[in-house]
């Protein structure tokens, strides 16, 4: 089963967050992650709004968790800490009916 990273982000330091984004992309790709949405237009229907929304698909739940836990992603994430307010969840996709 594939899995999705779903992140909702408010960037507070664009320069530092840019360093995160530069390093995070290759780490995500190295674990088979593909971006489905990265910023772009949105409409908040319920809950707390964050102006940046990102969705990435991974080949499995385990690959998504391994990416998050990897040294490469954690090094990238160090740039986002203090430069953003983030919520991130990993969700296993439902198979097509």
UniProtKB/TrEMBL annotation:
Name listed for the protein in its UniProt record: DUF1330 domain-containing protein
Regions that span the bilayer: none
Domain of life: Bacteria
Lineage: Bacteria, Pseudomonadati, Pseudomonadota, Alphaproteobacteria, Rhodobacterales
Domain DUF1330: 2-93
Gene3D superfamilies: 3.30.70.100
Any matching Pfam family: DUF1330
Record organism: Paracoccus spongiarum
InterPro entries given in the database record: Dimeric_a/b-barrel, DUF1330
């Amino acid at each position: 089963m594939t899995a999705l990273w779903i992140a909702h982000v408010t960037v507070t330091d664009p320069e530092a967050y840019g360093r995160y984004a530069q390093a995070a992309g290759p780490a995500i790709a190295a674990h088979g992650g593909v971006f489905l949405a990265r910023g772009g237009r949105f409409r908040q229907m319920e809950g707390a709004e964050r102006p940046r929304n990102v969705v990435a698909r991974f080949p499995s739940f385990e690959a998504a968790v391994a990416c998050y836990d990897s040294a490469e992603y954690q090094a990238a994430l160090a740039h986002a800490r203090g430069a953003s307010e983030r919520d991130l969840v990993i969700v296993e996709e439902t198979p097509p009916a």
